[in-house]
UniProtKB/TrEMBL annotation:
GO cellular component, one term: plasma membrane
Subcellular locations according to the entry: Cell membrane; Secreted
Organism of derivation: Chanos chanos
Name this polypeptide is given: Ly6/PLAUR domain-containing protein 3-like
UniProt entry tagged with the keyword Signal: yes
Length: 200
């Protein structure tokens, strides 16, 4: 789990990167573009009930907030993103491999099945935070809960949109994503994530 940072290139010289942003067909062609500081490649996949329903590969001019790898698991739906950033000309010429599927890691969080948010979910891989978010469906906001990687939470705190496009609240500790525990654990989340970024 990494967050890569990089300053603007010396002398203000533009960095050449490949760009490939898939359209509705899901495909694209590499083009060369000038970027301020970093090139990026990313692979994303969405699973519904354990079955892959979509996958995307893209190349782009990257910012540090986009150089993340992790997962966002709401039980019935799980999204995985794996990205790599680099800072030499045309360095993003490879497709990033999807993060490997791993089993439960021992952590548990609440998840929602319909209106029932008292169900528990076994977190997987590096999903070390519990999460709560709201999504707009048919003009109504629906609460969704589950597990996520702390780097996803940290990117959201830095201003990157959450995986659902809405406000995302994360917390540390088993089953902490209930109404009483979210705010109490927010400070612990920030301390934990900042420590990982600075010292690991």
């Amino acid at each position: 789990m990494k967050l890569t940072t990089c300053n603007r290139r010396p002398g203000g010289n533009a960095l050449q990167c490949y760009q490939c942003i898939p359209g509705p067909s899901g495909t694209c062609t590499d083009t060369q573009v000038d970027c301020p500081s970093q090139c990026g490649s990313a692979t994303g996949a969405t699973y519904m009930s354990g079955q892959k329903t979509s996958a995307i590969n893209k190349k782009f001019c990257a910012t540090p907030k986009q150089c993340i790898s992790g997962s966002f698991n709401l039980g019935l739906m799980k999204s995985i993103v794996s990205s790599k950033c680099c800072n030499t000309n045309l360095c993003n010429n490879h497709t990033v491999q999807e993060l490997p599927s791993t089993g439960p890691n021992g952590k548990k969080c609440f998840t929602c099945v319909g209106d029932d948010c008292s169900q528990t979910l076994n977190c997987e891989g590096d999903e070390d935070q519990c999460v709560e978010t709201k999504v707009n469906t048919g003009g109504q906001k629906i609460t969704m809960k589950g597990c996520t990687s702390s780097i996803i939470c940290f990117a959201h705190l830095l201003g990157q949109p959450g995986p659902t496009g809405e406000r995302v609240t994360c917390c540390a500790g088993d089953l902490c994503n209930n109404v009483k525990s979210i705010n109490q654990n927010m400070f612990l989340l920030v301390v934990s994530v900042v420590s990982k970024i600075l010292y690991h």
